[in-house]
Amino acid sequence: MSKITKPKSALKGSKSDKKQVKMAAEAVEKIVAEKPVEETPADLSKTIVSTSSSTSSVDPAFRIVTGSYEHNLFCVSLLLGTSPVFSPIFHFTPHIQSIKCLATSGRYLVSGSADENIRIYDLQKRKELGTLTHHSGTITALEFYKRKWLLTAGEDGKIFVLRTKDWEVLAELKGHARAAVGKAKVGVVDISVHPTGRLALSVGQDRKLILWNLMTAKKASVMACYPDVLKVAWNLAGDRYAVTYTTSISFFSPETGKLIGAIRSPKDGLYHSEYVSIDGKEYFAFSNSRGVIRFVDTNEFEGKTNDTKNEFKTEDEDIDTISFKVQPHATRVKDFSFLIPDNVPEADRHVYMTSVSTDSKLVITDMNTRETVGAYNTGDRLNCCVMVQEDVEMEIKKALPIPESDHDMSASESEVEMPQPSKKQQKKAAKAARKNKKVKVTIEKDN
């Protein structure tokens, strides 16, 4: 059972922060007749990059949350237009060591840190819900499956599956060891949930790549990998997966388990990687130590090769025929995230990418035009980031749709604050009804 520690304070923010939030929300709801004059915050410097005027009747808006080496969690709202407008939402220190990873699903945000804790936040209420303390090592990966489950992984070699309805641990996936890497001990490095929610992949520096059956919480298969592994990711259709190492990427077919292609980057270290769909095409994106993020067209990549090893090199011109690249930073890109703002008409929606680096800047790129549309200097060495919709605080509570899959590892989350009566309470009420007795069943809200 997971241990949740309630926070002493919520994400209230200052009065000036609340005023900025209100202003940003009003700008999203209606057409802004006149662009507000930007003011540079006293504590945060800002870099603005010019962009072309918006073709939409409503300017795109969204929020970016970042985690840093300085233990800070920072959220900024961005309104794009003839000139981007950044509005800080909150900036505080929830952890006592560096924040390693972030994940979001709907109204929920979670942060994992080297202090072995996972903090939970409700972005709709701007409230901190509590702390998960079931790991005994640095938190290395967090991933939601829709709004039902949260998978967590750490240096202790453990993977847990939690139900977001009450943040209870449903299962512990046992298979990785806590391997020694020099003086440090690193267990699970990354996890990736299959699009169906039935399977998951995990990689660790114990040289294991494990395919998990989430229906049984048991291993389906175990494969070997190199100890310098960094990331693992399913593609959007779930029929391919990629394993990223410090200087190479390997692509596999899960049906055969065979290597179908590879990319090598011998001169530049690799960092973050993931699949993304842009203009109806699936790309595999990965970043390097020179601030470059390359997007490989997966349809063009598979089946093609430029040498006998069935691999491309990032230094060769051949890879440019199947990919494109952007360079939002001058140094290593630690993380990037994608979002399609839902506050604009569907025909005008673009894919936006936020990338972060240890240069303290978060940079926003319009992936449809491949142009930088804004940048913000946070003053922190950034380590991770996620993007959320601008209207996350204005969502009206509503019941979630029936889940598509028939596996019922947990009931789908309900947005209703009042929980349903337990089976014991229902039996008690039914028994009393048969005896024509009135029994009052009370349900306490979670504190």
UniProtKB/TrEMBL annotation:
<feature type="repeat" description="WD">
    <location>
        <begin position="92"/>
        <end position="131"/>
    </location>
</feature>
<protein>
    <submittedName>
        <fullName>YALI0F12661p</fullName>
    </submittedName>
</protein>
<feature type="compositionally biased region" description="Basic residues">
    <location>
        <begin position="424"/>
        <end position="440"/>
    </location>
</feature>
<dbReference type="Pfam" id="PF00400">
    <property type="entry name" value="WD40"/>
</dbReference>
<dbReference type="InterPro" id="IPR001680">
    <property type="entry name" value="WD40_rpt"/>
</dbReference>
<dbReference type="GO" id="GO:0000463">
    <property type="term" value="P:maturation of LSU-rRNA from tricistronic rRNA transcript (SSU-rRNA, 5.8S rRNA, LSU-rRNA)"/>
</dbReference>
<dbReference type="GO" id="GO:0005730">
    <property type="term" value="C:nucleolus"/>
</dbReference>
<dbReference type="InterPro" id="IPR051959">
    <property type="entry name" value="PAK1-Kinase_Regulator"/>
</dbReference>
<dbReference type="GO" id="GO:0004860">
    <property type="term" value="F:protein kinase inhibitor activity"/>
</dbReference>
<feature type="compositionally biased region" description="Basic and acidic residues">
    <location>
        <begin position="401"/>
        <end position="410"/>
    </location>
</feature>
<feature type="region of interest" description="Disordered">
    <location>
        <begin position="401"/>
        <end position="447"/>
    </location>
</feature>
<dbReference type="InterPro" id="IPR015943">
    <property type="entry name" value="WD40/YVTN_repeat-like_dom_sf"/>
</dbReference>
<keyword id="KW-0853">WD repeat</keyword>
<dbReference type="InterPro" id="IPR036322">
    <property type="entry name" value="WD40_repeat_dom_sf"/>
</dbReference>
<feature type="repeat" description="WD">
    <location>
        <begin position="188"/>
        <end position="222"/>
    </location>
</feature>
